Give the backbone structure.
Amino acid sequence: MNRLFHMLHALYPRERTLAIAATAVFLLAGVARTALAIQTHSAWIPVAAGSYREGVVGQPIALNPILSANPADQDLSMLIYSRLTDFTTTIEADAESHTYTVKLAEDLTWEDGAPLTSDDVAFTVKMIQDPDVHSPLAASWRGVVAERVSELQVTFTLPSPFSFFHETLARLPVIPSHIFGTIPPANLYLSSYNLEPVGSGPYRVAGYDKRRDGFITEYHLIPNERHRGAPPFIQDFYFRFFPDGNALQDAFRLRRVDGFGLSLPPSSGAPTFAASVTERIPMPRSYTIFMNQTAKPSLKDRNFRRALSESIDRDRIIRDAFGDEGTPTASPWLAGNEAPPPYDPAVAREALAAAKVDDKGLTLAVPQIPALQKTAELIKNDWNAVGIAPVNIVTAPPNDFADTVVRGRNYELLLFGNTLENPDDLFPFWHSAERLAPGLNLSLYQNAEVDRLLEMNRQTGDAEKRAKNLERIAAQISEDHPAAFLFSLPYLYIHRDTLEGLKLPMIVTPADRFQNIAEWNVARVRVLQ
């Protein structure tokens, strides 16, 4: 070092400056080349660390996936309980798709160490089917017989062939028989395990906090070390609960939560926040006006029904009621949906003129959800503009609406949203056998050819044949005009830009946003490849 110092001092000042500059350039070039090499031959990978706070409107009531349709319960249950296909090794169907044999992985356990076996699977189905349980999953399991073959094997025998049963199995949450097996089915709701659950999912409950008035403010989840799947990266997952959407969005703005979802986009469009990302996740759901021809003689006239559909400006509804977050629909089959023809009230007036009805007055039933009530008002204005009047709008709170209006078919026109558990299975919504509750044929539609095609569609596993059947089904239903198809809406999920790992091409329910929760991550390190 001394020798280099003496050499520099032996140089003239200009030579010394040039030498120092050249050395600095050489060193900087080396640093740059090293940095480039690291960047080229390395990658950021997620690591097990960090926390995440999910904001939810509402309250958990029963963290039991076969009991509750409450969104807060479903969100938590998605992380705490596994679905059947999370721990199966094989699923085999017989040639007629009538009996399915499922084999479980070995050495499965619940988070408390108790073994998870085929007994738990059969018990879960039995509880779902028990009328005293009132499970929201009961319709999907009607007539299915689940039988234990061995500790690791269970069979499902269907009342008739059903080619979509693989999807039904994939959505079956399994609950522990050693926890709930001694409780009378009617008393399942009373179990303390509905707030302190024992599951087999990627997370388990570490604790929860509530105010003195009973309002639960937070659930804290940590990784379940006995979960069969890949361990989640996020080490502390919190659910924080709020009384309404405004309080939740204020908390996000103040960085007290890291993510939240919106089932219905607001009329102002997706809210914007600093350093955040908005995911628009497709859902197989559509909003429709169902026409009950048995409740109003004028609705028996096909041209009148056509006029009701043709006179609706769907683009304006999506713009004014949902902030341009939606897609107009013209078909019951969303995968084959084509954009409706451009809005033209003259076409509706022609259909109305061809209708042989004297009484053009109608009553439209809609749940008390602000966005849907606004939709109803816009539709009323469209109908009035072409001469369909008077139009009365009746509303009820969502829970009362489902029980008193929908189940009893107590409406002339019904504005309602349907979600297709299997997007290619239209049977529950359009087969004549589903006209009465608990069926979902809300137009009380009857067409023998459509019934035949719907039945064929459930019996074939051939994707090409199924698509052709669906095209014919959709064309016939659209030709009959039993309903006015309006729009489909995405699910909006807003989160901090530090979150990565979401892979959500489509979800059936809002809770499905957590279906790849193990891949969510908020901490990453760079490693050489």
Summary: The radius of gyration is 29 Å. DSSP finds 15 helices and 19 strands in the chain. The mean pLDDT is 92. The first helix runs from residue 2 to 10.
